[in-house]
Specification:
alpha/beta; five-stranded parallel β-sheet; 5 strands; 21% strand; globular
């Protein structure tokens, strides 16, 4: 059903929620996984246009992605990673198309009211910018997997 799944990670405790869910789905469908993190600090957003070197934050993000990939590979999954910089929703949607992914699986926080306006923008933006199906898995309060 799904051959290549894009999994946006935010470098938070919510990542365990989506990775646990995707592990089961990928095993069932024999899917490969593409992990992406979009660094959105000033240096990350301007790295290409200003030809900046990778910031310490970006190096930490790259290491974080590679740790997840190594874990998934050790479990028998085909996994690769992408570190992008810029607007998260735009970068995720672009990566899904560029990497020929047929599903985007992401954790959402489940904010309510005004918090959703301020904090729910990435998931909402992704679903408006892509034709790739988006699976949103709500994480529990605090982002800790059950």
């Amino acid at each position: 059903m799904y051959t290549r799944i894009l999994v946006p990670l935010e470098h938070s405790s919510y990542d365990g929620v989506i990775v646990d869910h995707v592990r089961r789905l990928a095993a069932l469908c024999q899917s490969s996984l593409v992990l992406i993190h979009v660094a959105d600090g000033w240096a990350a957003r301007h790295q290409r246009s200003l030809q900046l070197r990778e910031s310490e934050e970006m190096r930490a993000d790259r290491d974080y992605l590679e740790q997840w990939c190594a874990t998934l590979r050790a479990e028998g999954f085909e996994a690769e990673s992408i570190l992008a910089g810029g607007d998260p929703a735009t970068e995720i949607a672009s990566a899904a198309e560029r990497e020929a992914c047929d599903l985007i699986a992401m954790a959402v926080h489940g904010h309510k009211g005004l918090q959703d306006v301020f904090y729910g923008t990435t998931a909402n933006g992704v679903r408006h910018k892509t034709m790739v199906p988006v699976l949103m898995v709500r994480g529990p309060a605090g982002g800790r997997p059950r």
